[in-house]
Every structure is written in C-alpha cells, then in structure tokens.
Amino acid sequence: MNEPLSSDEESPNDPERRQFLSKAVSFVFGGVVVAVPVGAGLATLLSPLGIKNPEKLKVRLASLDDLPADGTPKLFQVVAERKDAWTKYPNKPIGSVFLRRKSENEVVAFNSSCPHAGCSVDLSKNGGEFNCPCHASTFDIEGGIVGKSVSPRGLDELEVDKELLKQGQVWITFVNFKAGVTEKIEV
Ligand code: FES
To answer: For residue 136, which atom of ligand 1 is closest to its CA?
Structure first.
C-alpha cells in the first residue's frame, strides 16, 4: 500500500513551492521579453532581405590627412562584405568614390559612376575635371555637367559624416543612383 505523501514533499499549497514556481514563471516570461528585441536587431543586421538598397552603407574611406590639401580629388574604392543565400563574399569591391578636400574641414564625395550609363569616370590629367570614357561626358570639379555632355545630371554627391570629419576621419554613406534620368533616385 502506498504511503501518504508528507505535506513537505508534494503539497501544492506549500509556500516555498509556490514561491519557486512564481520565480520560474517570472524568469521564463522575462526571457521572452528580452529575446524579442534582440532577435529583431540581429535579423536586421544579418539579412539583406527587405533593405531597399543593400549597397547603401556607411563606410570609412580615409583620414582627412590622406586627402591632398590643394583640393585635387582622390579616388577610393568601396569594399564590403556581401552574402547571398549560400555564400559569404569577404571584402568585395562594390564601387568607388572621389573625395575632394575643399577646405581645412570640408570634404565632398562623389560616386564615380557616371549618371549617364554607369561607366566609371576618370580624373583629368590636370586634376581639374572628371571625364567619362564611354560617351565623353565631362564634369567640373564640383561635379557639374560641362558643355554638351550626354549625362542627364551632374555627378552624384554622397553624404559625408560631419561629426566624424571633425575627428579627422572621412566616413561616407555609399549609395548607387539610377542611371539615365535627370533626378537622383536611389536604386
Ligand atoms: S556612361 Fe558616361 S557618358 Fe555615357
């Protein structure tokens, strides 16, 4: 015959047991509340899906001292880690940017991609303008169209982080824009 259980072992009304169950429930519930925002943050970081322009990224290109003080533009490659569903591609070039130091603490950045059809523009020998090798569009040092260039707009200026520039670091937000149209439209 089974012996009756002692009240210490199994009574559901035991205050210690109730306290233990209460703590356990609080712990589990608390874990769920914390896990939701962390999981959402990771999903945003790890998955390129759902990002309108996956190539829009903030990147450090140079220190201020790397740029010629006389205002001559200098070309920098933008390198980023990319991945598709199966493969991770470390440090793959995704574009390039001309940086120009306009004054002691002012830097302008242009996407080197020609707005006509996307060829990469070159800096002229004298450093005074940009030339596109594909259909001969020319841009002045401020990125504006020169003469009868076929490009529908000037070079696309990119955002430079002013706060980080004060610390001597040149960070830009890299974006590609739609070619062949007058407006500057992110792709
Ligand atoms: S791609 Fe530059 S002028 Fe056509």
So the answer is: 3
Q: Has residue 2 been placed in a domain?
A: no
Q: Which atom of ligand 1 is nearest to the CA of 151?
A: 3
Q: Which two tokens stand for residue 105?
A: 């603490």
Nearest CA to ligand 1 atom 4: 135
Residue 73 is assigned to a structural domain of this protein: yes
Domain that holds residue 74: 57-174
Rounded mean pLDDT, 7-30: 51
180 touches ligand 1 (CB under 6 Å)? no
In this structure, which residue's CA is closest to atom 1 in ligand 1? 117
Indicate whether 143 and 107 sit together in one domain.
yes
Q: Is residue 146 lining ligand 1, measured as CB closer than 6 Å?
A: no
Which pLDDT value is given to residue 92?
Answer: 82
Q: How many domains does the chain have?
A: 2
Cα–Cα separations (whole angstroms), residue 134 to 73, 118, 120, 137: 20, 9, 9, 8
State the Cα–Cα distance between residues 170 and 33, nearest whole angstrom: 39
pLDDT in tens, 35-93: 333 332 222 223 343 344 555 789 999 999 999 999 999 999 998 877 777 887 788 88
Q: Are residues 24 and 79 in the same domain?
A: no
Are 146 and 97 in the same domain? yes
CB atoms within 10 A of CB 107: 20
